[in-house]
Every structure is written in structure tokens, then in C-alpha cells.
Design goal:
five-stranded mixed barrel
Length: about 220
């Protein structure tokens, strides 16, 4: 079984419709079953994402999963509705530097949490087949919607991040601890600076539709090709 996680209701609804996941399951968050797939609506933020991922991995033991959603661009080369394939993610609001840790480094010594390389390659192939502009990069995750251009520049310089969002680093951290293959995929809605909130709302529906198409392609994948 494959799981598709998304934080926002619009994102999750697009995934449910694309994947035919119409059967609700009992869970502390919206969770729906389809043919060989689960769609989990985690809610916004790191705690919500981590809780949902841990619950699904422990309760349903899926083979692999994808965390999909939207993000604000830090890399000026990224445009609205471009797809960012996150090779790794860092929690930019984790700060243990007084104890000699690097910015974003967690207490157990990991700073960047990786996407599964095989799943990421599969997502890249699916995106290109669909004609979606895409690139690989780094995601910065934090529990605050970023709408400050100076802070956006700081995060890009500090972490080499291409985009910023509120769940991916936490989701990949849980997957890392569970030794579970997961890939983080983000569609750009805004530039994480002035006007970010308005851009986010303007592009959320279109980005969610794009995520649904990508999820459908990924759900159709078989080992035989």
C-alpha cells in the first residue's frame, strides 16, 4: 500500500478525487482508503504532520509514501506551479546552536532528513511525463508561514534551501526514524516574501490539481514499469 500525505484540506481533497480514495477510516485526522492507497490529511504544521505520519506508519505499515503539498519559493529560479522534488529537508526553526549544534541540527545529530532516492526518481519521471516543470532541491520547514523577504534570503543562505513550508522536515524525520521510504514533493505557490499570503491563496487550487495528477501517476506505478 502507498500513502499520500497532504496538510491542507484543498490538497487532500485533490488527492482523494484523483486517487478515488472515498472510504473514510477511523483516525485522529481525515484518512481515506482507495484501491491500494491511503490519503491522509495531516493538518498544518510540524506537530500535526509528525503525528499523522507516525500514526499511519504504525497502524497501517505501508510500503512507501509521498508527502505532497505547496511551498513558498526561496530560489528565484522557481516560478508559480513549478514542482520541487525535495532531496532533503531541514527544520529551520530548530536551534540548538548554544550546545554546539549546526542551525537546524536535531538533538540526535541529524540536520537534513532525506527523501528516498528511488521514490524521488520515480516522481521526477512522472512529473516530466506530465510536462510539469520540476527541479530537485532543499526544503526548509518551520512552524511559521514565511512572508518576510529578508528572512527568506537568510534561510536560503543558511541552509541552501530552495523552498519553505511547514511540514516536510518533520514528516521526513519521522520516516527516517521509522526507516520508511518517503519522498517530499512540493508545488510552488508564492515567493515567501511580500504578498506571499495572497499568492498562496491564488495558486492553491491550481497547485492542488497538479498534485492530484502527479499522485495518480505515482499510484499507477508498478515494479514492472
Amino acid at each position: 500500500m502507498r500513502v499520500f500525505f497532504a496538510a491542507e484540506p484543498e490538497e487532500a481533497q485533490a488527492l482523494r478525487e484523483a486517487l478515488g480514495a472515498a472510504t473514510p477510516l477511523e483516525a485522529p485526522f481525515p484518512l481515506h482508503l482507495g484501491q491500494g492507497v491511503l490519503v491522509a490529511e495531516t493538518g498544518v504544521g510540524k506537530v500535526a504532520a509528525a503525528m499523522a505520519v507516525a500514526y499511519v506508519l504504525a497502524r497501517h505499515v505501508p510500503e512507501e509514501s509521498f508527502f505532497l503539498g505547496v511551498a513558498g519559493a526561496l530560489n528565484p529560479a522557481l516560478k508559480a506551479l513549478d514542482l520541487l522534488l525535495a532531496e532533503r529537508a531541514v527544520q529551520w526553526d530548530v536551534d540548538l546552536t548554544p550546545f554546539g549544534r549546526a542551525p537546524g541540527e536535531t538533538a540526535f545529530g541529524v540536520r537534513f532528513f532525506p527523501s528516498d532516492p528511488g521514490l524521488l526518481a520515480r516522481a521526477e519521471a512522472a512529473a516530466r511525463a506530465l510536462g510539469f516543470p520540476c527541479r530537485r532541491g532543499v526544503v526548509a520547514t518551520g512552524d511559521r508561514f514565511l512572508a518576510d523577504p529578508e528572512e527568506a534570503s537568510r534561510l536560503r543562505a543558511l541552509h541552501g534551501a530552495d523552498a519553505v513550508e511547514m511540514e516536510g522536515g518533520a514528516a521526513l524525520m519521522v520516516a527516517y526514524r521509522f526507516r520508511h521510504p518517503m519522498a517530499l514533493l512540493r508545488v510552488v505557490t508564492d515567493g515567501a516574501g511580500e504578498g506571499a499570503a495572497m499568492d498562496f491563496q491564488a495558486f492553491l487550487k491550481a497547485a492542488s490539481r497538479r498534485l492530484g495528477l502527479l499522485a495518480r501517476a505515482l499510484a499507477a506505478y508498478t515494479e514492472e514499469g
